[in-house]
Design the sequence.
């Protein structure tokens, strides 16, 4: 019966190839590298579970194996070894150990992702699709997520989160769920908000500074309304991943910049902390990290006068102005520029990034962290982590959550 051996051969040849590709082939192609790297570094246990299931379905290994049997077994073993190696490599052994029950439940979530989705749905309370602002009769929405049985006067710290998606896509409904629900279970009232998005076309969609203006409006709404959900309006930690991390960092560093608060220039949008996960912080390439990144990954050709790929993207789809003639807009939109002016005067920061990120160089996060006051900034580099490594249960995702919760614990207060 060739069904079992052939199934193993095809499945695990593909898996093994994904590991090879993410390290050797795809770094020159960011889109392909992202998807392949994400699959290979996030879905260890589901794949291993599939291995066991397929082996259970397959016929017993013959007493006199054929060449195909031996090849299938060899490929299966090599694929399993790679997955197990990367699984162990993704565990951060420096973190305090968890209880056996917690560790076992995490393994179960990694092996069977639907369990995570059910657990996240029943372990927190969610108030969905609350309108916090409108533009041309189009509502911009947020969710409020609370620990079970949260009282209105609980006065819990607030975690205000913004999704990623390159400023052109994404939603609170499916980005960052693993993180925001984990933070809520850690004793925070979480606000997960949308914001206006640009489009990949030349017309339509949001233009800068629409994105950050909505983030500021979400801060203002949180200050005005979060007490009725049990949150403390004076203890807000703003956060985000990818593009959302950029917006969160920028908002944390510009509480009184009127250009980002059109129509509510005098309102207080200060926050007490910031968590930025694999974000973009420098739109003007102050240390040439983007230019070096493009060159290293084969994205630049003979014409080195062209701007880095991030600048090209921003001027075409997000800021929608030429960098050469509107550099000041790119500077104003760069958290690193604002941080360099407020080295000793900014809120505590948590900055996390994967060292295998194929979309945003880890040097971006390191540079931003170095720009901040070292006494007020925590930097976590996730070994083997790709972009969006916190999207589904994995060793790196849980390590990030543990590091983040350690940072957030400083903002906890006793219930009043």
Sequence:
């Amino acid at each position: 019966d060739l069904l079992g051996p052939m199934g193993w051969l095809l499945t695990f040849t593909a898996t093994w190839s994904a590991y090879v590709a993410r390290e050797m082939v795809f770094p020159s192609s960011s889109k392909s590298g992202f998807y392949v790297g994400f699959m290979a570094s996030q879905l260890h246990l589901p794949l291993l579970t599939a291995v066991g299931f397929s082996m259970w379905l397959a016929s017993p290994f013959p007493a006199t194996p054929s060449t195909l049997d031996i090849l299938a077994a060899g490929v299966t073993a090599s694929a399993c070894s790679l997955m197990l190696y990367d699984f162990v490599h993704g565990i951060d052994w420096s973190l305090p150990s968890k209880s056996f029950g917690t560790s076992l439940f995490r393994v179960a979530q990694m092996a069977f992702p639907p369990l995570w989705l059910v657990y996240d749905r029943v372990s927190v309370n969610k108030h969905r699709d609350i309108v916090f602002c409108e533009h041309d009769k189009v509502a911009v929405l947020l969710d409020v997520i609370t620990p079970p049985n949260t009282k209105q006067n609980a006065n819990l710290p607030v975690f205000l989160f913004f999704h990623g998606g390159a400023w052109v896509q994404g939603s609170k409904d499916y980005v960052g769920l693993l993180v925001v629900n984990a933070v809520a279970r850690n004793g925070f009232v979480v606000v997960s908000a949308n914001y206006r998005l640009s489009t990949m076309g030349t017309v339509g969609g949001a233009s800068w500074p629409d994105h950050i203006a909505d983030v500021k409006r979400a801060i203002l709404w949180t200050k005005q309304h979060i007490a009725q959900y049990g949150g403390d309006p004076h203890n807000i930690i703003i956060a985000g991943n990818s593009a959302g991390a950029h917006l969160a960092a920028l908002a944390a560093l510009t509480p009184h910049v009127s250009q980002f608060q059109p129509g509510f220039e005098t309102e207080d949008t200060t926050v007490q902390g910031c968590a930025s996960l694999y974000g973009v912080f420098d739109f003007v390439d102050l240390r040439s990290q983007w230019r070096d990144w493009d060159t290293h990954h084969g994205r630049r050709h003979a014409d080195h006068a062209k701007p880095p790929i991030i600048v090209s993207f921003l001027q075409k789809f997000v800021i929608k102005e030429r960098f050469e003639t509107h550099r000041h807009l790119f500077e104003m939109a760069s958290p690193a520029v604002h941080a360099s002016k407020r080295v000793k005067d900014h809120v505590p920061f948590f900055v996390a990034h994967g060292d295998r990120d194929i979309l945003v160089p880890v040097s971006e996060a390191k540079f931003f962290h170095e720009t901040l006051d070292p006494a007020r900034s925590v930097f976590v580099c996730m070994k083997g982590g790709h972009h969006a490594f916190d999207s589904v249960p994995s060793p790196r995702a849980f390590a990030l959550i543990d590091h983040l919760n350690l940072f957030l614990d400083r903002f906890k207060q006793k219930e009043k």
